[in-house]
Each structure stands twice: as C-alpha cells, then as structure tokens.
Request: fold
Amino acid sequence: MSAWTSSSPNIGKLVLTRKLRIVAIPFMLAALLMVYLGLSSEFPVILSWALVATLALHGLCVRHYLLIDKNKGTLTHHLSSLYPIARSELPLDRIAGFCVTKTFLERHGFSLVVIMDDGQRVILMRKRALSEMEEHGQSLAKFCQRPFKVELSQ
Reply:
C-alpha cells in the first residue's frame, strides 16, 4: 500500500504511511462517538477516551517516507507524527547498494538495508512481506542506480 513517486528525474519519494491512516480512522470515529454519546466523569472512561483519541490523532498525522534527492545527493529517512520522531540522511555517493535480509529474532520478518561503501549496514525499514520489501528495494536501487540483492541465508 505504499507508493513510489518520482516528481522529477532527480527526486523520488517512497511514502510508507497509508496503512496506518486507514487503521486510525476507526479510532477517531470511536473517540468522536464517545464524546457524542456523552462521557461520564469516571476516571477509567476519561482515560480510555484520551488513549483512543491520542492514538487516532497520531495515526492520522503520521508521516513516514524515504526521499531521494539527487540534487542534494542524499537519501532521507523521515518519521514524524505530532512531533519529529526520527530523521536520518545518508549521502548517495557512499551508498554501495540495497539488500533485503531476514529480520533478526523474527521468523517471517524481512528488513530493507542500505549497504554503505565502508561495509556499514543501515536498516531503512522492517516488514513481514518479502515481496513488498523486494519491490521497495528494487525501486530504490533502480532510482539510485545501485545494485540490489536478496540475502536470505541464516
């Protein structure tokens, strides 16, 4: 459900938050319904409403994407919601390639990894579906003109 977009030959973006927004909509509807029906002044009721509303708000405001900007020479990994959570920038000229590996401690999980020219590995994302990870990795590798491989032996 994520989408790869290329606004120009030098800028590409992989948006990863569509699923979370779909899940957040029922939480927001539940929070609004709780207010519409009236909240009692009991602490557990107010606490449950606050938790549901906060989860819904974070889910609706989340932004998670990978941005490749060849003009700046960077690959940016951005994650935020109501406040910044994580942001990292990797220089494109130091990226040797991309690969999909098995996630450590998860039986059916896979990670998309950037391999730097000094051998360092930076995990971009973790998911359960191998096909989706391969698709993302191939898209990123093709746009960056870097090699892509799948490493599943462990």
